[in-house]
Known about the structure:
Keywords: Calcium, Glycoprotein, Hydrolase, Metal-binding
Family: Belongs to the sulfatase family.
GO molecular function: metal ion binding; sulfuric ester hydrolase activity
CATH class of the largest domain: Alpha Beta
Protein name: ARSJ Arylsulfatase
Cofactor: Ca(2+)
Number of strands: 18
Amino acid sequence: MLAVGVLAGLSVLSLLTYGYLSWDSLGLGPGETEAMRTGLGEELGAGAPSSQPHIVFILADDQGFRDVGYHGSEIRTPTLDKLAAEGVKLENYYVQPMCTPSRSQFITGKYQIHTGLQHSIIRPTQPNCLPLDNVTLPQKLKEVGYSTHMVGKWHLGFYRRECMPTQRGFDTFFGSLLGSGDYYTHFKCDSPGICGYDLYENDNAAWDHDNGIYSTQMYTQKVQQILASHNPRKPIFLYIAYQAVHSPLQAPGKYFEHYRSINNINRRRYAAMLACLDEAINNVTLALKKYGYYENSIIIYSSDNGGQPMAGGSNWPLRGSKGTYWEGGIRAVGFVHSPLLKNKGSVCKELVHITDWFPTLITLAEGQIDEDIQLDGYDIWETISEGRRSPRVDILHNIDPIYTKAKNGSWAAGYGIWNTAIQSAIRVNHWKLLTGNPGYSDWVPPQAFSNAGPNRWHNERVSWSAGKTVWLFNITADPYERVDLSTRYPDVVKQLLRRLSQFNKTAVPVRYPPKDPRSNPKLNGGVWGPWFKEDEKKKKSDKSKGANKQKKNKNKKKAN
């Protein structure tokens, strides 16, 4: 009976998969009939086209630096290769080493130290979210007439309703609130017994969409539906934050066909997931062309951080992995594809950071950036489109004051300028400085994935001298961080430490609250979702105020 059930499940999934793949061959969008197409075409013909470009920002999750065809990967990514080759490849492009930090910096244009999210990620049970006083990119785009839609992974907090995507500038939202979950069932367990459903449409659990469809395909279907129903003469902002290729490592069976020769099971599953993602992006591009958006569109592709080798990702030849400030954790796959680019088919080696998209896209959308918003990003469109020099000369990778302190770090090691026990990293021109505990620092070559299980014998490791808490690299000359220059150039170290100290003076307090037991999905109908009730807080504060008044009255009577 179990075997029959499994076969039946596979049959349903294969039907759904082939249904997903058949729309373009039929010439119709999801749920669209020819009559609907005719009516829609007549409706879309009305009105003059907008001079504002359609903006499509695609964010992959945990894609390693090597894991794209044009970086030499054994994993085939024909769509990404073609879009990048016809656009501008960003080969000096940086993000943050984890999910929440990259997403918060993209949507606000600010470093983590200026939003309070400088430590780790937002956990499902934490009463925490992107601070509500931060203006977001979709809010600014809405001001100038854009329709704003988000599909995919949010991971910027949801403990109260005001933190939800639809309250932060998106007209519609379809996706997950947490950092990860099952690709088919959309369930996530944060710890034993703390489990819940995590698929949303706008502000409500999307039980009606729970059809066992693989999330990469399901999100693509949603994007196609949005494009089919919107008027291409009016500007649209689509933020597509795919769950792939983040763990758990799951993919439909057909995508394993080309990768059965990969013995390492994690790498094989990862390859299948990336192949599915590549096909999904092809389908998004076809939809942009079919529904009349493409010629006036800007497609930006980015990973949110480096790959995780233990989960199949490869950053070779860069050092380190996701969660670290080595290049393997923060240098990302990225490109821009657009008919509006002036220098198509080029490579941009200028310094670009994920915070730069905020001012760049607002300017392209003919919007205004308020003078009182202290941004850390720069408008880099001319750098990308015309090959001009980047206005950016430095990047604060981060300062995390509550990360595990380096045991041997001290103010003395930092020349009295900086406490090197603190985890931090900064880039200024060609130089990069790291202090504190830098995290996993191996180089993981492709041979490391040659066996069925993880094999660290192939990894290249460096044993640092005892007590080391400062590293300096010339990233332009040594992008693989093999030659530490901190003892050779102490004056450069001091200059970068002073820059770190200057940035630190502008930092806001870290927001990393303890878990709240009220977050348990069992208390919320089995769903991960907002649990903090403003009314309850007001009632409690009103009660406390009333109690205080009564105490004051009693004290007055006693005094009389």
